[in-house]
Amino acid sequence: VKIFAPNIEQRDVVNHLKGSPAEEKRNVLVESARLARGNIQDLAELKASEFDAVIFPGGFGVAKNLCSWAVDGKDCTVNEHVNSTLQAFHSAKKPIGLCCISPVLAAKVFPGCEVTVGQDKNVDGRFPDAETASAIAELGCKHICKNVNESHVDKANKIVTTCAFMCKAPLHEIFDGIGTMVQEVLKLA
After folding, report:
1. Do the beta carbons of residue 69 and residue 76 sit within 8 Å?
2. Assessment of whether the complete model's pTM goes beyond 0.90
3. Annotated active-site positions, please?
4. Of 8, 23, 95, 111, whose Cβ has the fewest other Cβ atoms within 10 Å?
């Protein structure tokens, strides 16, 4: 297992303690290295031929830094290295795992694919970003409704997705959904 991140400036920096913007600048690769304890490489160096699969975690950073979904929605652009990584694994018929908001990357890069970001309605207040499902459909993709502890496998494209934190759920349910995504990616590898 190797971890990669793009060597780009973050769109913005948020003070998560206060929930407000910070005035500083940060680099995505440097911040990712902090989280990964330094064991990380520039995404530009990733060679799909050296790996059996790729998994993209989610989080708002995906929507702000790996693409511009946070600002542009379905009209977003995808970072060139993220796009080329997805294309390389897809072309090699290697599995791609995506969780939380990152399934929008596949929806943007692979028209016609199937993904899930949970439910298409805000069921019991658990899916506050349910409109993401309709945006995915507007991109020509099929959104599959799934519970937080489930994943969806698009067998034709070898794309496995789960909603993770797109659902307001207990951590153990989010953990279970991510676990099923990882298991399904490994089955396809």
Report:
1. yes
2. yes
3. 100
4. 23
**pLDDT surpassing 90 at residue 15:** no
Q: Which of 181, 113, 170 is nearest to 146 (CA)?
A: 181
Amino acid letter for position 179 = G
Q: How far is CA 112 from CA 39, 143, 173, in A?
A: 35, 10, 28
Q: What CATH class has 51-188?
A: alpha beta
Q: What is the pLDDT of residues 57-100, one digit of tens each?
A: 999 899 999 999 999 999 999 999 999 999 999 999 999 999 99
For residue 55, list its beta bridge partners.
Answer: 97
CB 5 within 8 A of CB 40: yes
User: How far is residue 151 from each of residues 13, 91, 173, measured CA to CA in Å?
Assistant: 31, 22, 12
Cα separation of 8 and 113, whole Å?
Answer: 28
pLDDT per position as a tens digit, 40-52: 999 999 999 999 9
Domain locations along the chain: 1-45, 51-188
The Cα 153–Cα 185 span in angstroms is: 9
